[in-house]
Design goal:
Blueprint: H1 2-25, E1 41-44, E2 47-50, H2 51-54, E3 55-61, E4 64-69, H3 75-83, E5 91-94, E6 99-102, H4 108-142, H5 149-182
Antiparallel strand pairs: 1-2, 3-4, 4-6, 5-6
């Protein structure tokens, strides 16, 4: 029973770390990257749909991304969704067939804003990991009557080590992303 709780906590924490890494990938560095638009949701016939399901994205130049929609009637909605993305500074233009996105040059001030944004995302991920730890600790406490006190203490130490490892993984990813953002 204790092993099940710890395994579940580890799996959920792994997903939280992966989610944080995906969030970091959506923050722009020097080159325009189609991954920046991974989380963009387009209002397509009344329902929010991920941009990747509505169009193909490619980057022919360093600061340009071309969005080719599968359904031409979605052009205006795609353009509006990209324009509404916060902290991107993208300037989409629609020529009737494709949406061309020109990304502005990154200034030092903009890079520092992105670093703040990434730190916020990292803190959110750490809070999520700690929430998983809290829930798992409650689950372990619920098992108190079924297992011994020593096993419970050992399991809590394992849970703390697991939490620490996942928070450290988030911190490591944050350091890499900060270095990438501040690199000129």
């Amino acid at each position: 029973m204790i092993a099940d709780v710890l395994t579940d906590a580890g799996t959920r924490m792994d997903r939280a770390v992966e989610s944080a890494k995906e969030d970091f990938a959506t923050v722009r560095t020097g080159r325009a990257n189609p991954q920046l638009f991974q989380k963009v949701m387009v209002d397509y016939y009344g329902s929010p749909t991920p941009l990747a399901q509505l169009a193909s994205l490619n980057s022919p130049e360093a600061r340009t991304i071309i969005v080719t929609p599968y359904d031409k009637s979605a052009l205006k909605a795609i353009e509006q969704a990209i324009r509404d993305v916060p902290n991107l500074g993208a300037n989409p233009t629609n020529d009737g067939n494709i949406v061309r996105i020109s990304m502005p040059e990154l200034t030092e001030e903009r890079r520092k804003e992105y670093v703040k944004l990434v730190r916020g995302k990292a803190e959110d991920a750490k809070v999520h990991v700690r929430g998983i730890r809290r829930k798992s600790k409650d689950d372990l406490d619920a098992l108190k009557s079924d297992v011994g006190e020593d096993e419970l203490v050992r399991a809590e130490k394992e849970l703390d080590a697991l939490t620490r490892a996942h928070v450290d993984a988030i911190d490591e990813s944050l350091k890499r992303k900060e270095a990438e953002l501040l690199e000129v």
